[in-house]
Structures are given as C-alpha cells and as structure tokens.
Design a protein that fits this description.
Helices cover about 5% and strands about 50% of the residues. The chain is mainly beta. The chain has three domains: about 1-70, no CATH class; about 70-175, Pectate Lyase C-like, CATH 2.160.20.120; about 200-339, no CATH class. The protein has a 27-stranded mixed sheet that branches. A two-stranded antiparallel sheet has the order 1-2. Strand 3 (about 25-30) and strand 4 (about 35-40) form a beta hairpin. The relative contact order is 0.08.
C-alpha cells in the first residue's frame, strides 16, 4: 500500500501502490481485479473497473476510492447488456446518451466557484454491479430548492442501448440524446426536458417543464402542472394532464387522452382509434388523415366549432374509425382533414 499525494482539488488518501507517472498522470492499479484509478495534473479522476472485479470488490474499491474534495470525475464501468440507471440529485443538468462503449458517468459541480456545488460533486455516490447503475446525492442535498444552500451538479451519463433510466430531481435541465433508451421515468419539480427516442414507455411527472420529445414507440404518461409538451411521433397511447399545460403531437398513431384546465391540444395527424380531450378554455385542433372515418362527440359551451369534419364523415375504404370526444367550456374546436 502507498500514500497518495493529492493533486489539485484532491486530498490525500491511502490506496494501492501507484505506477510510474505518465505525462502528469498517476495510476493506481488493483492487483487482483486489474481495476485502475488515474489522477492527472488537473485533478481529473477516472475509475476503470477490471473485468475480474466482483460486485463485492467493486463496492470496496468504490468505498476506498471515495475521496472528499474530488469535484471533476469520470467513472467507467464495463457494460455488456442494457442496464437500469437510477439518478437522484437536487438540481443542475443531466445529459444521458447511449452507445456500445462502456457505461460512464462524468460529474462536475455546476459552478466550480460555489461551495455547495463543489460539495455536492464530492459527496455524490456512484455504484454499478453490471445490471444496475446508481447515482445518488446524499439526502442532505435533496431539500427544497431555493437557489441558496443547494448543491447543483452537471452529470453526463452514457449507457448501453436499450437501457432504462429512473431520474429524480428538484429542478434540473434534462437531455436524453444520441441513442435509444427503452424506458424513461422522470420526476422533477421544474426544468426543460428534451428526449430524442424511447423504444418502450415514457413517464414524466413535473410541476412546470417545457418538454420536447422526438419519438416514443410505447406509451406516454405525463403529468405537467403548467408546462407544455411537444411530441413529433407517438406510436402508442398518449395521456397528459395538468392545470394549464399544452400538448402538441405531430403524428399520433395511438389513442390520445388530454385533460387540462386552460391548456390546448393540437394533433397534426391522428391515425389511432380515439382522441379524448377535456379543457375549460383551451383550443382543440385535430387533423385526420384521408381514409379514416370520424365519429365526433363535441361539447363547447362558449367556443366555436369549425372544420370540414366537424359533423363527422365517412371517408373510409376499409373499417378504420376515429372516435373524437371533446368537452370544453369556452375553447374552440377544429376537426379538419390532414392530407
């Protein structure tokens, strides 16, 4: 065993014997598993677990390699199959991508000059057993977000394709890009959410978020208090509720259910079997592709009803019907052809 001398931003600790420095890098290698820990001249630390590292030894190495004062870290874990990642932190930024490379987690304080952010990065707990990846902030960081006394983080997470993510945060910008996730479950107080592609199901619970989604092949379930959501292509069932949230869908191949106090629903092309919308004052606009019959049940106390299909139309060569049920107090309703 040898005594490590801390580099910039890294306190000293007792680790395995280091190898000779290589251009400013100091490498610690575990003789049993082949796992390594590397320091460079800037204090950047990379954990790389060897293939022979058992779950118990990974846990022990993670515990021993937890050095207070580390604020800029990249953790690397061998990954040979889709994994489930759980991410819990208070505030900041989280970017998730997928690739065939190893699973990696990069951590930085959101503001390196802010003590709370530096402490949040140093106290983050990261653990992976090959099937599950956990990125957890200590409980003392998960209090009410006031902008004072709350540690903010920047997280970059790379996972194998078709992995799943459960993400909990108080207020953060969330971006899911560059690849395919199977399932995504987000619970956040506020902050923008951007998602490229989900092959199975998407679940979002937020108080106030601007949500952008490219494509979801499974079901979408969203509770968005006062934000908005744009989906380019929804191949499964979509359900959204909120007090004043808006929902826009470019193409809806499945059924849609929408409920909002004053929000609007806009569907460019609805080719599923049913659309149900309930709102007090929001606008409802639905386009229906040629070849689909429309069976509308529309109720608006003070709004207008317009569109070529407002009275219903049988434009079906086969037996494809779209049931549209709308109930609004003062919102306008527009049901029109989409060519």
């Amino acid at each position: 065993m040898g005594q490590a001398t801390g580099t910039a931003g890294v306190m000293s600790t007792t680790l395995d014997t280091p190898s000779a420095p290589d251009h400013g890098r100091l490498v610690y290698r575990d003789a049993i598993s082949g796992s390594t820990k590397e320091f460079n001249e800037t204090g950047l630390i990379e954990y790389r677990f060897g293939k022979l590292a058992s779950p118990a030894r990974r846990h022990e190495q993670t515990r021993r390699w937890r050095v207070r004062g580390e604020t800029d870290m990249t953790h690397t874990f061998p990954a040979y199959q889709p994994i489930e990642a759980t991410v819990h932190f208070a505030a900041g930024l989280c970017i998730v991508s997928t690739s065939d490379d190893d699973a990696t987690v990069r951590v930085e304080p959101f503001d390196p000059g802010r003590r709370e952010d530096v402490e949040a990065a140093a106290n983050l707990v990261i653990d992976c057993d090959g099937k599950q990846l956990k990125i957890i902030a200590k409980k003392k960081l998960l209090g009410k977000v006031t902008g004072i006394g709350v540690g903010r983080l920047k997280l970059w997470v790379n996972l194998p394709p078709e992995s799943s993510v459960i993400l909990r945060t108080e207020s953060a910008a969330i971006e899911i890009s560059d690849g395919t996730l199977a399932d995504l479950n987000v619970n956040t107080g506020s902050g923008p959410i951007s998602v490229d592609y989900i092959s199975r199901n998407l679940r979002i619970d937020t108080s106030d978020s601007r949500i952008r989604v490219g494509q979801v092949d499974g079901d979408v379930l969203v509770d968005n208090g006062s934000g908005s959501m744009d989906i380019e292509l929804a191949n499964g069932h979509v359900e959204m509720s909120g007090s004043s949230s808006d929902l826009t869908i470019g193409s809806a191949a499945g059924s849609v259910r929408f409920s909002s106090g004053s929000g609007s629903l806009v569907i460019g092309a609805a080719s599923g079997t049913a659309v149900e919308a309930r709102t007090s004052s929001g606008k409802i606009s639905i386009g229906v592709p040629v070849g689909i019959g429309v069976r509308p049940r529309l109720k608006s106390s003070g709004g207008t009803k317009s569109g070529a299909l407002i009275a219903g139309a049988d434009r079906v060569s086969g037996n494809h019907w779209l049931d549209i049920k709308v109930d609004t107090a003062s919102g306008d309703i527009d049901i029109h052809p989409f060519n």
